[in-house]
Amino acid sequence: MAAVVADLLATCPVVLAPMEDVTDAPYRALCRSLGAHLCVTEFIAAEQMIANSRLARKRAALAQDDRPTAIQIYGADPDALVRAAALAEAKEPTYLDINCGCWVPRIAGRGAGAGWLRRPEAMIEMARRIVAAVALPVTVKTRIGWGPESDMPIIDLARRLEDAGVSGLTVHCRTAQMGYTGRADWQWARRAREVVSIPVVVNGDIACAEDVVRALTDTGCAGAMIGRAALEDPWIFGEARALLAGQPALPRPTDADRLAVFRRVMLDNVAERGAQRGVTCTRRHVGILGAHLRERLRPALFATTELTATLDILDRAAEHASAAPGIVAA
């Protein structure tokens, strides 16, 4: 099973991270058009999966062209996670991922996500049960520990997860207590990679294409997962792939490129959610516009929920945007 994950990362080692309310189907499609290959869905609560809720159905739905994609599930109850894993398998993802890294109090505070790091023995047994329950590869995304005095440092955890049958490991190189403060120490991913034979993916503070190259070079990991940087810079995937292939650096997107991509994201969201909700949901992607366009257009974009008015704002901005060559999503 680990060979499946390893082969995917060998094809392209740059992975789009799961991010709630961000990496939905339209955004995954955008990132793929700009160079992403392997993607992970927004996380799905085990209980929602079992209840077949509207949210779970939406997040787990994978079109034929939305692959390779992993479905990520989370929860605090191992029985529910095992049931949810079997249900997720029926959606035919490329593999399943277990979230053991979300540090947000509403998740970790009830034992889900990074909360598993406070009970590592239970975490290992939970992973073992999920691996036994499905025929797909199972991976785990986690952090280096709960806090400075973690009972289960990532090195021992990596070994034991491999023994439990896990096919891959993504390491966000901060503790759960750090959240997003401080700096991610990529050397923890390197140390985890050195003690296992399954693929290890490094995650945390990978902010540009050059960071992707540095992270992979410094750690020897099979892949690098990009999260927050992809929210504002989906071009990072194509740029990283070019650098990794030894090709010249791709030109940075022009204002015209940014406006075209933001417009595409909006129209995809409208097609997915309807006009008004599609417009409001696209606000979370305003970072795509870049600093100066965002500062100039944000007040007007946030002042309306009407599609026609929003497109007019973007079209007027495009008339004045730079027409220099750049990268526009297909």
Q: If you had to describe this structure to a student in words, what would you say it looks like?
A:
The protein folds into two domains: about 1-245, Alpha-Beta Barrel (TIM Barrel), CATH 3.20.20; about 255-320. The chain has helices at about 1-10, 25-35, 45-50, 55-60, 80-90, 105-110, 120-135, 155-165, 185-195, 210-220, 230, 235-245, 255-275, 275-280, 290-300, 305-320, and strands at about 15, 40, 45, 70-75, 95-100, 140-145, 170, 200-205, 225. The chain is built from 16 helices and nine strands. It is globular and about 60 Å long. With about 325 residues, it is α/β, with parallel strands linked by helices. Helices cover about 50% and strands about 10% of the residues. Strand 8 (about 200-205), helix 10 and strand 9 (about 225) form a beta-alpha-beta unit. It has an eight-stranded parallel beta barrel, surrounded by eight helices. Helix 10 packs across helix 12 and helix 13 (about 255-275) packs antiparallel against helix 16 (about 305-320).
